Amino acid sequence: MSVADAEFAPDGSPSIRPQLPPGVIVGGPAVQAKLRETYLLLGILYAGTVAALIWAVVQGIGWIELSVFAGMFALTTFGIGAGMHRLLVHRSFRCGPVMRVFFCAIAQMAVQGSILKWVGNHRRHHLYADDAGDPHSPHYDGFGAPYVSALKGMLHAHGGWAFDQATTDNEHYAKDILADPIAMFFVRTRWFWYGMSGVFIPGAIGYALGGVHAMIGCVLFSGLFRCYALILVSSLTGSVCHSYGYRRYEVEDASTNELVTTIITFGEGLHNNHHRFPRDAYISHAWYEFDLNGLIILGMEKLGLVHDVFHASSRHLADAAPEPQTTPTAG
Ligand SMILES: [Zn+2]
Ligand SMILES: [Zn+2]
Question: Which of 98, 145, 153, 173 might form a disulfide with 120, Cβ 3.0–4.6 angstroms?
C-alpha cells in the first residue's frame, strides 16, 4: 500500500490528498512495527530523562557525569553526522571493513533508529525535500499535505514525524544497506548498541571512576538523558535548518544554514550547503562555518583511515553566490 486517496475535511466534505511518491508506505504492518519500536525506544529515553533530572536535583551531578556526558555526546554526534549521514547515506567517503565497523557502531550508538531506517528516511528527505513525500519537512506532513500552522510544522519536523502513520520502503531507498553484511549486522543488533550507548559504557566508566553512586548518575545523566538530548539536537537540522537561518544557495527546498545548530551538531547545521552539494564530505564554505565532522573526516583521510573522500567544494564554489542571504525562508 503506498497511497491514500481521499480523506474528509473537518466540515465533512471530501478532500483529496496529494499523490505520494513511490517508496512511501502508509498504514499496515510496516508502520505498526515502526510505531512499536518508536514508542518503546522513546518511552525508555523519556523515563530515563525524567529520572536523570530528578537524580541531578536530589543527588547532584559532578565532574564524572559531566565528563562522560561530553565524551559520549561527542562520540555519538560524530557517529550520526559522519558515520550515519555522510558515510552510510551519502557515501561521501570510503573505508575498509574495520573502519566501516567503527562507523556503523557509533552510528547505531546515536540511538536514532536502525541504520536501515535512518538511511532510507534521509534519502527520501533529500529526494522530496520540503515537498509531498518528505518524511520530516516543517512544510508538509507525512501524507503530503501542506502545513498551514508553522508551529505544527516545526513540531512534526522536530520529532512528531516519528509517530505518524507512514514509513519508508527501504527496498526502494536503501538496497545497498540491505546488501551490506556489516551494516545489516548492526541493524539486527541495534538494541545491543543502544544498550552500550545508553547504559553499559557510561555505567562502566562511572563505576570505574566513582563507584556505584557515579555509575547510577552516569547511566541516567550521561547515558539515557544524553541519548535523548542528542535526538533533540540532531532534529534541529530537520526543523530549524528548513525554516530559519541564511541561504547561501537558492536550491528548490527550504534548507538553511544556521550557525548555532552548526556548532552543536559539529557541522550538520550547514544544511543549505549540504542540500546544494549532498555528497560533499566537508561542507563549510566560509571561515565562520565550522564543520567539525568534515574536518575530522579530512584528518582521518590524512592518517589513511578513510579514502576516496568526496571533495566537490573547490570545483563548485566558483559558481556559488559570494555572500549568503540573511532573510529567513518563508514556508
Ligand atoms: Zn534537509
Ligand atoms: Zn543529507
Answer: 173
